[in-house]
């Protein structure tokens, strides 16, 4: 296969400090790797799509001590790491050959070098009637996070009342479905931004959805939780977290998966921290890397549920087509609330 | 015994909303109960001393839904509940007789009605060479909270590095001693306000103490924690909590016992909430009421340690003498940093 000698790669220009993410990158030209550049187990792929994850914002945030991060940070001048899908064009892997469609840790670039092993690496999974991006959404980091949250972190049970913030997001919308359709949780309440998103969260199984853009949303939440929430899965932090603190049941559990509010601002204010004390609940941060031994089981379960139609993936992606030049702009929709379910960038030439 | 027909009682005038606590009470005259007013198991005591606890501030805070509190709130017009010690002057109890020195839930008043049963109720314990207020400090709510924190909440072990905020306070100073002198925790670091308090915290066993009034204290803390803290026992919340979040070890544990910062202000700001996620630690609120079955063991242990001299109580109280009129003013020293160890009000006529 004949490859271009050079290709385009996005590099981090300045570390993000506010919401103006699309201005903080440089699109540069780099030599395209040749087969001699690859190590054993590596392949070069031509990227076809990218998953967009709030965590990428965190990796670029140079204010965090690298020792405190769970992966290598993205430093100024580095390519932007991303969950990439693409077609193998050069291979030094025994597992993957040219033409295979695979996914793994790539970069915002036309071509990426991938390793053929790792917890979030593999061949593309295609299921009839489902989106081709399913490997990067329900079956990928996103769905695995929701599965781990439900079974390993929150120990969700049918008698629970569950609240999910960011319920229209990638992880949140999958969790709403697992909780309601698989575990049969008594009451599942989503929190999302806008009537459109809330209608969608209700349509995928939530018993109710509260629109945080309505100034009265704390009152609506309280009315929906006369017996409080046994479990709260928080994808956003900030004011929504603070609003939920007085609504967590005594000895309840808060699973903290994300803090978009915290990533893009200089922190946030908590007025109800005392609730943690006098109602003795637990708040715990989560990442799927702590559950590497369970991820095969997660993917098996999720694949089964998608195949038998229990969980719907067809609607739960927002796919945006764009050229490589538009990748940062599309990424930024995560922070402006521009997606339902997983935000996928489909690369076009 | 001849009792006065009336006596003085402090009532809540307005719910506290800022630090001006001493202005928010009314000293009023009430009829002194007679024996016919007492129920079975109740006694009337003449109060001799009061424990001062930050939690009392919480009980008066009418902004909290009573269903969310662990005890009845103190409403406007109510007497101020307090951990009281005194001498029985009327008894309808089979356990306590006139002249007994006892402690339990009383009021800011000359006389209080006490029940002779309950987890924090009993006869005064006197130990040679120890303060007469020991029942209300190391052997009372205070010491029991430290014991529960060490053994039941944090599962402290010798290999741990422990940080204690409010380390010069009643609970904090007892915990420092239990951790270092009993459990033999590898490194115990206190956080306290001012050199004088820090010197004292060091003298009771801490390996180091950081003065939060020094603007460079976050740097000092970080230097003392190159391997981070396995356990953080937080008595204060606010900026100190935020400063500690990047210093909690991956998969570590934060036991939240108090939030003085949160009680007296309109919340506080957190800039490092994301640390909870990418280092997956746990934050849990605690109250000893969840460990009622263990409190007898706690008191046995604490009594033994005080008797054999392992834990020092002689220095770990700040006893302020005052008339009933001065009780709110003395209480307020809790929030202006005016005490080392337990703040005790000794009533004088």
TrEMBL record, chains A, B:
It comes from Kwoniella shivajii. Keywords: Oxidoreductase. The lineage of its organism: Eukaryota, Fungi, Dikarya, Basidiomycota, Agaricomycotina. Residues 170-299 form the Alcohol dehydrogenase-like C-terminal domain. This is Enoyl reductase (ER) domain-containing protein. It holds the Pfam family ADH_N_2. Residues 9-117 form the Oxidoreductase N-terminal domain. The keyword Oxidoreductase applies. InterPro entries: ADH-like_C, ADH_N_2, GroES-like_sf, MDR_fam, NAD(P)-bd_dom_sf. Transmembrane segments: none annotated. It comes from the Eukaryota. Signal peptide: none annotated.
